[in-house]
Amino acid sequence: MSRRRIPRQSEVNIGTAGHVDHGKTTMVEALTGRWTSAHSEELRRGITIKVGYADAAVYRCEGCEPPEAYNTDGGCSGCDGTPRLERVVSFVDCPGHESLMANMLSGASLMDGAILVIAANEQVPQPQTREHLQALKMAGVKDIVVAQNKLDLVNYEAAIENYKQIVDFLESYGYEDAPVIPISAQKRLNMDALIQAMEERIPTPKRDETKPPLMQVIRSFDINKPGTRAEDLKGGVLGGSLMQGVLRVGDEVEIKPGIFDPDRQVYVSVVTKVVSLGTSAGLVDEVRPGGLIAVGTELDPFFTKGDSMIGNLIGKPGELPDVVEGLTMDADLLELVVGAPTPTKVEPIRKGEILRLNVGTAVTVGSVVEVHGDRVNISLRRPVCPPPRSRIAISRRVGGRWRLIGSAVMVRS
């Protein structure tokens, strides 16, 4: 599917969530014309493994009534009206498989809203549908739209029954006001109604451009092809989203926690220079908050290859939060373990147990040092640089896998 060139930097991050095989990536392709699962292992297995992303410009035709007025190709098939650009959206496509939950939680930390994709031809909820909705709630994502996908595979009666199950499921998690839009992403059916719901229910948040720039890293790359001569090598690239401030080519930036020093066995923050800024609109001289961006640096690409710098923060030297090797948090545990094969009660956190924590886009593991009621002190195996107002997702080993058991707010380092 052809798409017009994206006219400007994205303004809002909208995530996709839901059970594996329910059609999240197909839906994003229907909206953007881009298949986000581009890695060889993803193509071989047919699932999203890494957090993918794609941008789309949302247009509204001034001569048509909604939902037909909405599209992402800049045209109008229903009249001779003029399409008006509403905004540009970055889609954060998260993996649905249970074993990749850490990647989903990292992606959730960048979302301003989300589209929860639920297949019409399966019982509701499926395990990862429940787990993803709980993850969105833990991440503080309040604005969601539900896409009831694969309508072309069921009859009318089955679609209505599935719809009722979706409504009951949403109510149980406090999302009773979320619109449910029946679609077929494969057939491009009702995509205009989905775009309308997205525009009406997921607003572009206000961001402060006067504050120092602060960016969370969700991807990192070595963009050099094998065999590139040393004098032609380009520096490492960091992908993520700017939370506040403005970032410009030529800016000096600091990265925390930084790069692991094997000799000293510690993470060391690094200072580098921004040599390029990429958005879906192309290379630009500056970027503002909202949307996903790629920051070219002077870093040795060895340190950025293979997403090795996920979880770092980027900002002006001396302006970033402190790196912490331990933290104290107020935990809010769930009644039942999320995603467990059978209903499993969440037991209280115990001194000495190992927990996995998602802090912003960072994933770390820590040992519980002290527990006083809901207050938990943890020593981290890998330090983190917590973003401001970040919430923490807590997972515990249950049945051989990390399972969500609750969330927390950091009290102090």
User: Structural class from helices and strands?
Assistant: alpha+beta
CATH architectural name of the largest domain: 3-Layer(aba) Sandwich
Uncertain segments = 37-49, 96-100
The overall pLDDT, averaged over residues, is 88
CATH class of the largest domain: Alpha Beta
**Element order, helices and strands?**
EHHEEEHEHEHEHEEEEEEEEEEEEEEE
Q: How many structural units, i.e. domains?
A: 3
Sheet-strand content, in percent, reads 35-45%
Walk across the major sheet and give the strand order: 3-2-4-1-5-6-7
What order do the helices and strands come in, and which of them pair?
Elements: E1 12-18, H1 24-32, H2 40-45, E2 52-61, E3 70-71, E4 83-93, H3 101-108, E5 113-119, H4 127-138, E6 144-149, H5 156-172, E7 180-182, H6 191-201, E8 214-221, E9 237-244, E10 247-248, E11 252-261, E12 266-279, E13 282-284, E14 286-287, E15 293-297, E16 313-315, E17 324-338, E18 354-359, E19 362-372, E20 375-384, E21 391-398, E22 401-412
Parallel strand pairs: 1-4, 1-5, 5-6, 6-7
Antiparallel strand pairs: 2-3, 2-4, 8-9, 8-16, 9-15, 10-14, 11-12, 11-16, 12-13, 12-15, 17-20, 17-22, 18-19, 18-21, 19-20, 21-22
Structure, described:
This protein has three domains: about 10-200, 3-Layer(aba) Sandwich (Rossmann fold), CATH 3.40.50; about 215-315, Elongation Factor Tu (Ef-tu), domain 3, CATH 2.40.30.10; about 325-410, Beta Barrel (Elongation Factor Tu (Ef-tu), domain 3). By secondary structure, the protein is α+β, with helices and mostly antiparallel strands. It is globular. Residues about 35-50 and about 95-100 have low confidence and may be disordered. The chain is about 15% helix and about 40% strand. The strands form four sheets. The protein has a seven-stranded mixed β-sheet with strand order 3-2-4-1-5-6-7, sandwiched between helices. The protein has a six-stranded antiparallel β-barrel with strand order 8-9-15-12-11-16. The chain has helices at about 25-30, 40-45, 100-110, 125-140, 155-170, 190-200, and strands at about 10-20, 50-60, 70, 85-95, 115-120, 145-150, 180, 215-220, 235-245, 245-250, 250-260, 265-280, 280-285, 285, 295, 315, 325-340, 355-360, 360-370, 375-385, 390-400, 400-410. Strand 2 and strand 3 form a beta hairpin. It has six helices and 22 strands.
